[in-house]
Structure of ISL3 family transposase:
Amino acid sequence: MSHAGMIIGLPGLEIERVVRAQGIEVWAKPSIRPPCKHCQGAGLRIKATYQRTIKHTRQGNQILTLHLRVPKYHCQACRRYFRHSFVGIRPRYRASEAYRLEVFEAHDGGVTQRKLSLTHRISPATVERWYQHHVGQKRSEGDRRYCPRVLGIDEHFFTRKAGYATTFADLRNHKVFDVKLGRSEPSLRRYLRGLQGREQVQVVVMDLSETYRSIARRYFPNATIVADRFHVVRLINQHFLKVWQQHDPEGRKNRGLISLMRRHKWRLRDEQHVNLMRYLADYPVLQALYLAKQRLVRFVLLKTLTRKKAEARLPAFVALIEQLEASPLHALARTLRSWLQPIVAMWRFTKSNGITEGFHNKMEMISRRAYGFRNFENYRLRVLAHCGWDGVINRV
């Protein structure tokens, strides 16, 4: 690369003159004559020349503009014509790839379209078009990836008109694998059938959704279904608070008691535990259910157990569920028995959908920053750009 090419960042150019005013104007031409692009012959003559004006980069607060003298060649061997091509500049584009990538990275980093239109002298629509191009290129590279080994599936709200969307997260690498509109099997069927490497998925983490469980069984046949620990604990608390409402409606309205009832036993101070037991002494049935709930939560929070330890704990857990079947928490017992295998699988793994829920918070911030999205594909591109696979973009 010549000295001028090293300064500008484009090889194969011969600088003719440079003018510095409000911006940096550089006139250049090709330094070498290439072989024929059709037959690789060397006998070329210049048929004609024309000028291209290219925005290339910013140096400080000034924009460097290239005025290229582009020859049109005629091959003496194959009698065909072609124009000179430059590295880093696409045909018929008025900005170099370095300039477009600079705008993309600035906008991706949080600079607004209005600010970029002033600093780079392009319209806000051009900023959006370039951003969509690079994000689409990044997404196309990610579309060829295989499914992650540890997959998290959860739903989140998109719009009132479009409804809910399903998030597929790579829990091992802490990335969003994809986002698709809909949360039912018919709406996701076409996408799930086209996934590559579905047989390689080893673990699928989800909440207690029958729809997602049927999807996991059908489209990820070799995966172990693991229930999300947070949703199981929340389900236990919801059923217990509902039974509490039946036994003492007035006490259920006490916010202090609600806070104590929801906490784990080991998170209560001594005086808080004494006050709670004093209240539960007036309701023997509720007290027995509270103690059973605490035992149940302790079972649910187990993790990283070996197979031998898990098999040793399983009979006591099943016996506790059988006791709940004859109590006011019989609906909870039926649900736990239905999801017994995914809940027991939690004891062997530490992964949960907390990573996916964290991405949902980021998605909400992305939507707020854009003042909402009407088009789901635009929303999906933004999510994958900020939360998805950070593959390497072919910059030149």
Q: What stands out?
A: The first helix runs from residue 3 to 8. The CA atoms of residues 51 and 386 lie 38 Å apart. Residues 392-396 have pLDDT under 50 and may be disordered.
